[in-house]
Amino acid sequence: MRELEERIRREGIVENGDVLKVDAFLNHQMDVGLFAAMGKEWARLFAGEGVNKVLTIEASGIGIACIAAQEFGVPVVFAKKSRTKNIAGDVYKVEVPSFTHGGVSTVIVSKRFLLPTDRLLLIDDFLANGAALEGLIALAEQAGAVVVGAGIAVEKAFQPGGERIRQKGVRVESLARIRSMEAGRIEFC
Amino acid sequence: MRELEERIRREGIVENGDVLKVDAFLNHQMDVGLFAAMGKEWARLFAGEGVNKVLTIEASGIGIACIAAQEFGVPVVFAKKSRTKNIAGDVYKVEVPSFTHGGVSTVIVSKRFLLPTDRLLLIDDFLANGAALEGLIALAEQAGAVVVGAGIAVEKAFQPGGERIRQKGVRVESLARIRSMEAGRIEFC
After folding, report:
1. What interface predicted TM-score (ipTM) does this complex get?
2. Residue A158 belongs to a domain with what CATH number?
3. What is the pTM of this model?
């Protein structure tokens, strides 16, 4: 998606070789006009797929997911991260390693909000090693829900997550796919 | 706001006397159509105030804030919670106690995204003891930004936060104000 690629080129900052900061418009300060354009693109790509719910993970997926969900006219559920292993109540849960913060989070969703009848669109801001997205897929599987596909804002295609998840048969639509960031220069696929 | 009150009456669950669960439509599963109606109401209430940015706090404020911000045509910044006291980089920060989870979070915003020229609308899902909202006000003060006011979805008016923050001169517009929840029965102001 050209609008997102141009924005990354203009305002993205490469740090330590493989960290891409897009916090000026995507995941700290958030350009909701850009999010609406992204939502429209996913609505076009997943038209006719019967998406009835968007599933995302806190925190930086939530804003993108909510605005995208408006385009589909469906509710959003966000999976919650917890450092506690003892989670009370009737939840689906999965362990997700964090590459940004280190350690492992237990990620949970209330069983009331993921149903076997659901046709889910998964939304997240980044796809790199794929841990968060695989966590969402695991939660959907526990619920017996159908994963229609995943809408990702920025995929670091030189990391293995996207390839591995597509090989499982999950449709992944990333609006910007980065091939390399060598010497701080961002190249798209 | 009648639509929100009716929804709370129909789907809100009172637990342990003073906990109100609205996770079916507000802060776990999220009804983005309801959020758009809430955003329109805040846009009406704060019309002409020159709001140029929405400031919220992760995680459950983010969805509401993003959809409300569309009505104002402005970006959103969300303050991030961290359990780490050693935060790297150029950030404003404040300590915020958590009544839900216990303990204290360090809440941060990058200095790049809060400016002395900003006229901020603060958005959050709940106002009870006021700790989170006071944290956002403190971050705005550090930046020298103007707080135009706060848009809250659900205020527990029987807890002291709203009263204390209004006494400081901050305009607080809560779309549903709960006077009492005795015996599980929700009464609005």
Report:
1. 0.95
2. 3.40.50.2020
3. 0.96
pLDDT digits (tens, 9 = 90+) for B95-104: 999 776 678 8
Task: Give the list of residues 6+ apart from residue A120 with CB closer than 8 angstroms, or none.
Answer: A51, A52, A53, A54, A55, A114, A140, A145, A146, A147, A148
Task: Tell me how far the alpha carbon of residue B174 is from its chain's centroid.
Answer: 9
Q: Looking at the complex, does the CB of residue B37 fall below 8 Å from at least one CB of chain A?
A: no
Task: Among A31, A80, A109, select the one facing B75 at the smallest CB separation.
Answer: A31
H or E element at residue A62: helix A61-72
Q: Which of B136, B130, B28 is nearest to B78 (CA)?
A: B136
pLDDT of B100: 66
Residues of B in contact with A66 (CB under 8 A): 30, 32, 35, 62-63, 66-67
pLDDT digit string (tens) for B30-45? 999 999 999 999 999 9
Mean pLDDT estimate for chain B = 95
C-alpha dihedral sign at A183, A1, A35, A113 = negative
Q: Amino acid identity, residue B24?
A: A
Give the count of domains, chain A: 1
CB proximity B72 to A under 8 Å: no
Confidence of residue B82 (pLDDT cuts 50, 70, 90): confident
Contact A62 B63 (CB under 8 A): yes
- The Cα–Cα gap between B127 and B133 comes to 7
Give the structural domain span for A137.
2-188
